[in-house]
Design a protein that fits this description.
6-stranded mixed β-sheet
């Protein structure tokens, strides 16, 4: 099985030595996405819901570039700087995913790149 890099200009470019996603066989491993605007590379302004929507939009763009969609995500890792935002992030995630939902973890962290409030990584299996 070969490994290939997934990249799109519809999602923010990597801000470090990593790829947006890596495909190995029919599995795609997504790097964490923070709420960066793909055009400007700047953090989007707004509350946790606004930031979470940008993150899921970015993940959608990378999934599309890999030939898939959020419906094929099997695992999602969510990192927030304040667990008080758990319900708000859940509400946004429910706008993007339908049952059966992917497996998920939500972890509070002390900080995220560029001062983001939320970061999400994922694993997708293509049919």
């Amino acid at each position: 099985m070969s490994r290939s890099i997934v990249s799109t200009d519809q999602a923010p470019a990597a801000i470090g030595p990593y790829s947006q996603a890596v495909r190995h066989g029919n599995t795609v491993y997504f790097s964490g996405q923070i709420p960066l605007d793909p055009a400007s590379g700047n953090l989007v302004e707004g509350d946790i819901s606004t930031q979470a929507r940008r993150v899921f939009d970015n993940l959608t763009a990378v999934a599309n570039a890999a030939g898939g969609s959020l419906a094929q995500f099997v695992r999602v890792g969510i990192y927030v700087t304040d667990l008080a935002n758990f319900a708000a992030v859940n509400a946004v995630m429910a706008e993007y995913f339908q049952q059966p939902y992917p497996a998920r973890s939500t972890i509070e962290v002390s900080g995220l790149p560029k001062g983001a409030q939320v970061e999400v990584d994922a694993i997708m299996v293509l049919d």
